[in-house]
Each structure stands twice: as structure tokens, then as C-alpha cells.
Write a structure and sequence with these properties.
The complex is a heterodimer of chains A (344) and B (372). Chain A is mainly α. Chain A is globular, with a radius of gyration of 21 Å. Chain A has one domain: ABC transporter involved in vitamin B12 uptake, BtuC, CATH 1.10.3470. Chain A has 13 helices and 2 strands, in the order H-H-H-H-H-H-E-E-H-H-H-H-H-H-H. Chain B is mostly helical. Chain B has a domain of 256 residues. Chain B is built from 15 helices and 2 strands. In chain B, strand 1 and strand 2 form a beta hairpin. The longest helix of chain B has 27 residues. The two termini of chain B are 22 Å apart. Classes of the chains: A mainly alpha (344), B mainly alpha (372). At the A-B interface, helix 6, helix 11 and helix 13 of A face helix 6, helix 11 and helix 13 of B.
Chain lengths: 344, 372
Amino acid sequence: MQKLLQSQTARRIAQIALVTVLVGLTIYFAAQKNYRPVQYVQLALDGLRGGTIYALVALGFVTVFNVTGIINFAQGAFAMLGAMIAVSVNIALADLPGVPRLLLAGLAAVLITTLVGVIMERVTIFPARDAEPLTLIIITVGVFIVLQGIALLIWGTDSYSLDSFTTFETSDHIIRLGGEAEGAIPLIIRSQSFWIWGTAAVLMAGLWFFFERTMIGRALKACSDNRQAAALMGISPERMSMLSFALAAAVGAIGGFVLAPATRPIYDMGLSLGLKGFIAAIIGGLVNPAAAVVGGLMLGVIENLGAGITRAGFKDVIAFLILILMLLFRPQGLFTRQQRVEKV
Amino acid sequence: MANKYGDVIGVAVLAVAVLLIGLFQVFQPGGATFGDLTGGIVTFSTMVRIGILTIVIVGLNMLMGYAGQISLGQAAFYGMGAYASAVFSTRPELFGLPESLVAMWWWPWVVILAAMGFTGLFAYLVGRPILRLKGHYLAMATLGLGIMVYILFRENFGFRTTETNITGGYDGLFDVPRLAIGGFSLWPVERYYFFVWAIALIVIVLAMNMVKSRPGRALRAIHSSEIAAETMGVDTASFKVQVFVISAVFASLAGSLYAHFQAAVSPAPFSFEGSLDLVVMAAVGGMASVWGAPFGVATILVLEDLLRARLDLIFEGASGEIEVIVFGGLLVLIMIFMPEGVFVGIRNRINAWREERAGAAGDALPEQGAAK
């Protein structure tokens, strides 16, 4: 019995059974809601916007994990800081015209958050770099608590708002597709969605260029491929560790900054963003940046559709269900063929 | 050499301290309650809460310290006990049970035991697949599990109608009855204090025996090297699941005691933050130390009361935020400098210093000892 349960075929059967049950449940719930096709497209599009942010957070996870082998729980806090700092600077510079104000807000958000990332690495990760994984996990959790506490101290429990970067010359900053006919439902896209998608695309291209075409990016990559060999080639793993945290913080802050107008930034938004980003990274297999991005988009779409056909409060339940199923059945990620040997 | 009786002495000291605090509160010499003794900062009910959480932390210590398995979702098991007690001891009719059970004094006790059994079974079913995961993956899986259970409490398991309002949603449940044995009520708070601490001490002694037995040694072996343990014939998977189940059962018991103590239950303490608080307490007490648990819990809860009461003297107008920052910072510092936990760390350091001194004293050449 024990043998049978652990065998490959049994696992396959369990997987198929699970997928069948999930698909069945989905169809059942969807049938109850009786949505029109355009409403599904709407849910998926909104999910894609959230998923893009998860993808950016996931990139931070992957970068840090590749170089240091650490899961940085504080990753979500970087996105939160990015959003909150941008909002604050935007309020502080209320006299300036729109464009420079927004640029300064974004710049301040990214610079300050990057600095936070570097300080975090120097003060907490570096002294404990030889500790057990359990210890390192708890350290990053502690840093997350501190960062969130500081945010609470500075910004309180209020939620803030940032204007969309551009408008469509309409009062509510959205465009409507279709829906002119009687009784038809229009597809609504918020202008900020385009900013989020565009920024993410530019950022990913930039990261690709950084890792493939610049000396320092290639040193980082070398360090994640083989730390020891990289050290022998004169690359300092400690410096690269700091750099990976800086990079992760910067990417997270940019994600938070472009997300800010699409949500109402609040001090505790980091927890959910961080966890979702991690799930996205897991879907992508944790070591592959491109796969993590796809994972983020998938997660965003699936959880939004799932919440749409059940209830809004269950969004996180769906995300974590995906996480646990992934961890149990495909810990190597959806897109990796062979089982990775090390499971630590 | 003191180690042989160290645990016994630890438990004895704890029991005496508990007894003294309780007796002080009961007899109130000079008309001063326990709260007055601390200038009103640490109240007597904090002492009860320390007892309740000690039960959770003993289990978590065994899981994290001895088996080396992290759980960032322990509050879920704590919540399962609390909600089971709150729901079934007030409204058994929701589940087709006779309503008259509410009036029976023994009914809450049956619920507590049933909740422990159910939580244990749940932990077993979930633990078997999840504990195959290691390190970060296990941390995230337990975290996800914890948040899912929390959301189910908060969202009333997805039911919308008021007739099926099981968990009370965000507001939670009220009017949970006090425990009683026959006609003897375990309330007022002094009685409940002695009851809770009796249970906590029993749990501590139980856990100590488990740790010293063969399973305990096996667990420590798993912590140091799982592969080596397996090679020596330890069924690591089964031991890990066992300790996971035990920790869940302890948490469920503590949750039930909490529900009957607060007479109300709301989802907040069982959230992710709740699980994190538990990990902080375990870390302060020392993960591989059973009797460290009550000290870890006491440190955090007393510190919490202290910060709440006196923080405005240090920072103008500061409140809960600083508390959060202090605890997070504390956790980071402990993990960097004393990953084995504060109490265990201090004990180890004292032991090392003693041995060093003993070695120096017994040495024929004292200057060698003086050199270090």
C-alpha cells in the first residue's frame, strides 16, 4: 500500500483526479453565476493587471534566491514601500506640475526602497549568511514585520490614492470597448493597466539586457550558476548578494509604484503581494525569471476568475490552494521537465 | 552535571512561581492584587494567557526545535480548537445535535476532546504530504495552509445566509460558556488560572518525557541530519508527522481553553500575524527546550503589556506600531545572535562559562586557564 501510494502511476492518477475535480467545481460554480463571455474576459483582464505586479515581485524572489539561496519574505514589503513612498512624495510636491512630480515620486520610491534593500542585506542577512535555512527564513520574516511596522508608524492605517499616470480624456480614466448595442456589456480597461503592462515589459527587457549584456549582470548570473566557481573567477559572492537584494528591492518598488494608482496603497499591502509573488515564482520553478513572469500572469488570471465565480473573499484561498498543489505535485515548477534533485 | 536534574528543577521552579502568583492573587496580602504588584501593567489575565499559549509553544518547540520543521501556520490549529469549542458549546443544533446539550456541564469537555481529535486527524492528513517538503517549501506550505484556514473562519466557510452563520465572520462568536466540573464552575479567573496552568504543566511534563524517549532522540537526529537519521533506521517521515500531529493537538487544546477564557472568538488571533507571534515566542524561549516555552511566552506577553503601558514615556504619542517594530527587530536579533533561542542560548553560555572555570580551577597551571 505504502509503495503503491508513492509510485509514479499513483501520483499521476491523483493528479488527474484532482484536476478533474477542480475543473468540475469550476464549471459548477461558473454555471451558477451565468456570466456572459465578455464578463469572463473582463475578469481575466483585471487578473492580468494584478498578475503583472505578482510577476514583478516574483522576479525579486527569483533574483535573490538564485544568488543567495534565500527566500526573502520581505519582498512584498519592497513593493509596499515603493507605492507608499511614491504617494507621499506626490503629496509633498503638490506644487509641481504633473509630469516632473510623478517622475520624482517614482525616482524617490525606487531609490529609497533600493537603499532599504541594501541595508537589510548588510544588517541582517550578511551577519547570518552561514546560518541554517530555518534561521534565515525567520530573519527575513522579522525584517518584514519591522518594515511593515515602520510603514504603520509613518503612514498609519489610512489608505492613500495616486492619480492614474495618464487619462483617456475621460472623467473616469477608463476606456470602454463594445457595449454600444442595447443590453450589451462593455469591456472596461483602466488607463493605468497599460502603464503597468508597459512598465513591466520595459523592465523585463531591461533586466534581460542587464543579465546578458553587462559585465556586472553577468557576474550576478555567474554567481547564481555556481557560487564557488564565480568566487574563484574573482567575483565576490558577498557583493553579489548585496546587489541581488538591491535589484530585488528596486524591481519591487517599481511594481509598487505603477500599481499605486490601480489600488489604494495601505501599509499592510506587502504581505499579500509578497505571498502572491512567491506563488508566482513557485509556479515558474523559483529559479527561472521568465517562467516566474508567466507564473505571475497565470496566477493573477486564475485567482481573479476563481474569485469571480465564487466570492471575492476567497481570492487568497484560491491562490494558496494553487501554492499547496504546486508544492505537492510540481515543486520543480510547471515548465520544468525533470525533477530537480535538491529539494531544500 | 546539573543537566541531569535541570529539567526537573526547571519544572519545579515554574510550578512554584505559578503557585505563588496564584496564591497572591487569591489571598491578596495587604489588599494588593497581582496587578497592583506590577503597577497595573501586567494584569492577572495576562498570566492566564501565558499559561494557554505555553501549551501551544510547547508543541511548536517540539516541531521546530526537535524535529527542525518550521510551521508558519500554527495559529490555524489554535483557531480550530477555539472555533470548535465556541461553535459546538453554544449552538450544537447547527450540526444536527440536540440543543439541550448546551445545558450539560460535560458537553464543552466532550467538544474539547473531539476538537483535539479532529485537529489531530486534520494535521495527520495534511502533514503526510506537506512534511515531505523541506526548508522554504515547508514554510510556505504551512503558511498557505494557515491563511486558508483563517480565511475560511473569516468568510464563514463561504456560506452567505444568516441561518448558516457558523463562525460569525469578521465579528466572531460571543457568549461562550465557562467550563465547569459538575456544579463546580472553573470561574472566576483565579480558578481558571489554576486549571490552565495545571494543564500547561501536564503538557510540559508530557513533552519532556517524549523528548527524552526514543522518538525524542529520533527527532533530534532528524534535526541534525535527516539523511544520517534515516540511514540509522529512523523512519523520519513518520516521526515528523507524529510530532506535527502532537503540536496540532496541543494547539487545539489551547485554542479551546482560550475560547472558554475569552468567552468570545474572533478570527484575528488566528491570522498569519498570529502564527508569526507564535514563532517569535518559540524563538525567544528556545526552540529545542520544553521548559523554555513558558519563559518565551511570558517574555513576549509581559513585554507587550509593558510597551503598551509605558511606551508613551519613550516615544511621544507612539502606540501599537512600536510594539510591532520591537518584536520584529527582536526576532531578527535573536536569529542572528542566538538562533537556538534566548533562554537556551543564555543557559548554554552559562554552562560553557562554568565548564571553562571548572577546567581552569582543576588545572595544574592556572595561567593556562587565565589565558582563556
